[in-house]
Amino acid sequence: MADIPERELRTMNHLMYMEYYTGGNAGIFMKMKRLLHSYQSPYQRIDIFEHPDFGMVFSLDGITMMTEVDEFMYHEMLVHVPLFMHPDPKKVLIIGGGDGGSLREVLRHPSVEEAILCEIDPYVIDAARKYLPTSVKFDDPRAKIVNENGAEYIKQFNDYFDAIIIDSTDPTAGEGGHLFTKEFYQNCYKALREDGVFSAETEDPFYDKGWVAIAYNRISSVFPITKLYMGFMTTYPSGMWSYTYASKKYHPVDDYDPERAKPFEGELKYYNPEVHRASFALPNFVKEIIGEK
Amino acid sequence: MADIPERELRTMNHLMYMEYYTGGNAGIFMKMKRLLHSYQSPYQRIDIFEHPDFGMVFSLDGITMMTEVDEFMYHEMLVHVPLFMHPDPKKVLIIGGGDGGSLREVLRHPSVEEAILCEIDPYVIDAARKYLPTSVKFDDPRAKIVNENGAEYIKQFNDYFDAIIIDSTDPTAGEGGHLFTKEFYQNCYKALREDGVFSAETEDPFYDKGWVAIAYNRISSVFPITKLYMGFMTTYPSGMWSYTYASKKYHPVDDYDPERAKPFEGELKYYNPEVHRASFALPNFVKEIIGEK
Amino acid sequence: MADIPERELRTMNHLMYMEYYTGGNAGIFMKMKRLLHSYQSPYQRIDIFEHPDFGMVFSLDGITMMTEVDEFMYHEMLVHVPLFMHPDPKKVLIIGGGDGGSLREVLRHPSVEEAILCEIDPYVIDAARKYLPTSVKFDDPRAKIVNENGAEYIKQFNDYFDAIIIDSTDPTAGEGGHLFTKEFYQNCYKALREDGVFSAETEDPFYDKGWVAIAYNRISSVFPITKLYMGFMTTYPSGMWSYTYASKKYHPVDDYDPERAKPFEGELKYYNPEVHRASFALPNFVKEIIGEK
Amino acid sequence: MADIPERELRTMNHLMYMEYYTGGNAGIFMKMKRLLHSYQSPYQRIDIFEHPDFGMVFSLDGITMMTEVDEFMYHEMLVHVPLFMHPDPKKVLIIGGGDGGSLREVLRHPSVEEAILCEIDPYVIDAARKYLPTSVKFDDPRAKIVNENGAEYIKQFNDYFDAIIIDSTDPTAGEGGHLFTKEFYQNCYKALREDGVFSAETEDPFYDKGWVAIAYNRISSVFPITKLYMGFMTTYPSGMWSYTYASKKYHPVDDYDPERAKPFEGELKYYNPEVHRASFALPNFVKEIIGEK
């Protein structure tokens, strides 16, 4: 059947994607238009779907990593909050992030000279390259893609990076757990320069409040300045996502200079200086989860 | 990603197939391993899935046409009940049946010299050839595949076929309705020789009892001998499937000669002479649906 | 809110019943109108739903026991096949069957003087009495309801019953397993008179073929005459249900006298003499499962 | 069955709640423990479920109105943002809000002397009273419950209320649409005193961005000061909820006095002064939806 003329697939009721959230008693369902790609890598099951409203949906072991229409919320908040805190980020390491969305955001910063994407699973990279628009910067000359275990890879660096961004899967899925240990955060500290900045996705405080607390407290035990911040992420569990910012030097609100974001006006879909500051205002129940006050 | 080594995909919770039965208040769900093929033909949406227990699952517009593990129940009952009633079936027409299962069963009969498979949708044929083991006889020299509307195609024949088998989709789906009209049955009558035999799938008497009655009564108004018969079909709605046998000459129980099935012993998985006779014993509520007594 | 005027509840999309079949990779879903009753008894979770098409739906531990519209298929086949084999059944024991459907069918036989319903769970009896129309004969003077473990209760009887009917839940659910042991079948044999008849529901040969084989072979090792028979059961897994008939004396086809069923004409919705005989005609793959030829 | 001892119901896989979000291609599912109450009122279907993690779940026409564990996010943001803007709110009107959560939050403010809850459907009030802990203040002497159409009820008031809070259902569900018209907002304006404050839930900007824009722009055409603000709402569609604040006099950030919230410290679970200010920082794509720059 070499030359099938393409027709728009009708979305029907029969192809239902169901993601069970932590605890197993709730989740999201999506009526899919098609399943474009499925592959069992040595690390995980990789799937790429097309959804009539969400566009491409990328899933690892049945957990949604991103959808085309709302990934910007997550990637902008994970990347720009730390990067705008640094006066001149040149060397950036992204651990995880195989879909490429974080890399794309990092490379918006013209100061960046070297952006290493350390994604353990080469099959994620291949799938992203083929199906996901987020992979747009994989071949940028400043980008370098490394397929190694981030927890091991980081060990070789000392006082090298201006920014490290942890764009991991869930601590309980695949190889995600390695990226939630105190030892790993210590190695990130060591790999950062003295004015380096750090961010990590640290799960949602509704279904996974235990992990929010663990990740925040471990990072906080390593870095002198550690702050949880939050953003909407509409197709992730609960829609309420937490990130943790850390630095040896810069306080993410007190030291924030909104002028740096000026040249990005009109380019970003989520992040702006007011959102930057607002994201550190935590609801009382979230403060309680991380033991703040 | 040219040379991916194949690994067995893990079936997870996320890929759920849901078929709503007539009425929309119940249905079957299947956790799929993968979706191998999706295509929107001019007639319908064609999907081929792999299920961890059922093997290949073939679906049109979200309605299950067959699964690899139980299609034999349906195809054997649809084909062998009429074919064993004929002393020497040479020319056989199958209308619908694009998966090839009915053709495979027809060609088990050594007397058959010409088996025409008239499937309206060439994309079903292509998909079956590529993915469905039922297509095993598409290239048999006695087989001829024609992509035409069966209701039109039949009109050109007079006194030609020894057997006609209607292996249609639902009357309410795609082009299935054309194959449930009185005019169509009259054309079948005309195309059959004087000792010709006929069978049609006529839906299930639980979710679709209206169609069982309509199809049976229309066929009965055309053929002197018309009998409803039944068989299990485990992944079809209700698991209880009806077929209608018709003939100008042979009564399906009184004229049945079990000796004809002897050479098939050990080859068939569902049909045997006792099952042939038993399939015409109808539960009281089914008799009532078709107005028998 | 003492005096709410009753309005017909609109069935919407939100109340979905999902029964996973053995293996966990497929099942049935039903859009429910309401959930009338839920109770956690010492043995199991008991639920009674109302479905817009199926009427009352009775479920134990999430496994459908019966729906109002098709329970007759199961209860008639389980009860009348053995009872019409006995010339004069007076004393009948039903083990399980707390919904009352088997009892109702047993009491259609005017010869019956004593029908004991031994249902382990009194909360099933209470729920059935309140919600299920199948419980219509609970207060019949010939009926006696006993809430005991059937596997223990049977032990006290010797040469007493004319018929024993095992209307159990799945061997893997709740207390069902006790009713699938060889010792239990031996006690049934002992409790039956020399011309006693026996039937048991023995699961479906599609999702649960292992249990069909085990149950059939264990019964067969105890009774001189043992035959598997089958019937449609549209809301049970696969729609294809197996029962096992056993007797010390009567062969269910050779000794069958269709005259006995004459007075029931017009009363039963599934069973008739042709269906009785037909139900013993097994598809080849079912014969293979039970090791018959 | 008068005296059933209560046992904890086991949550199984069979009782699945599915809410389809706007567009019908995605939604949330919840495994429920039980359905406590279902009633078809003249306005809508009312259901109250118990979920193993979320506690009571209240649903109208299959759309989740609240769950016990996260309703505080919504009710605190809807109520306290406007109420802390007013120096001395005495008379407050809540339209909708039949679960009682908004009333509970309003009555935390000691200045409030009269809080009218205008809920069109008395059966919602009855169900809330019986099953929902949010109804805790229904019998407070300062509370007055009125069962009328809010869009009509508001018309009689002139220069009366210090705060009006619109806690409606979706504009497309039940009677929700009446509460999204320009005429209605004009009547709210008229009913407010010259320093009155107003808030309305205005849907989510992911699945329902059209309604966010419509509601915001209509309110904005009536009030001199109108600001969209946002908060997490973990079991609502997308988890990202919008509210619209309006006032004739007070700007919600410039005129905000955080001292007023001091006495509430330790009492609220979501709202605090930083969250108040942060909630008005809108992501770029939300600004675009409402036509802001």
Task: Describe the protein.
Chains A, B, C, D: Homodimer or homotetramer. 4 copies of one chain form a homotetramer. By secondary structure, chain A is of the alpha/beta class. Chain A has 2 domains: 52 residues, Spermidine synthase, tetramerisation domain (Spermidine Synthase, Chain: A, domain 2, Roll), CATH 2.30.140.10; 219 residues, Rossmann fold. Chain A has 8 helices and 13 strands. The longest helix of chain A has 13 residues. Chains B and C meet through β2 and α7 of B and β2 and α7 of C. β1 of chain A pairs antiparallel with β1 of chain B, so a sheet runs across the interface.
Low-confidence runs of chain A: none
What would you call the shape of chain A?
globular
Structural class of chain A: alpha/beta
Distance between the termini of chain A: 65 Å
Strand content of chain A: 25-35%
Largest interface: A-D, 45 and 44 residues
Average residue-wise pLDDT of chain A: 95
Order of helices and strands of chain A: EEEEEEHEHEHEHEHEHEEHH
Supply the CATH class of the largest domain in chain A.
Alpha Beta
* Count of helix runs of chain A: 8
Largest sheet of chain A: 7 strands, mixed
CATH superfamily of the largest domain in chain A: Vaccinia Virus protein VP39
CATH domain fold name of the largest domain in chain A: Rossmann fold
What oligomeric assembly is this protein in?
homotetramer
Q: What percent of residues of chain A adopt helix (DSSP H or I)? A: 10-25%
- The CATH level-2 architecture of the largest domain in chain A is identified as 3-Layer(aba) Sandwich
* Integer count of domains of chain A: 2
- Biggest sheet: strand arrangement of chain A: 9-8-7-10-11-13-12
Function (chains A, B, C, D): Catalyzes the irreversible transfer of a propylamine group from the amino donor S-adenosylmethioninamine (decarboxy-AdoMet) to putrescine (1,4-diaminobutane) to yield spermidine.
EC number (chains A, B, C, D): 2.5.1.16
Binding site for spermidine (chains A, B, C, D): 75, 99, 167-170
Protein name (chains A, B, C, D): Polyamine aminopropyltransferase
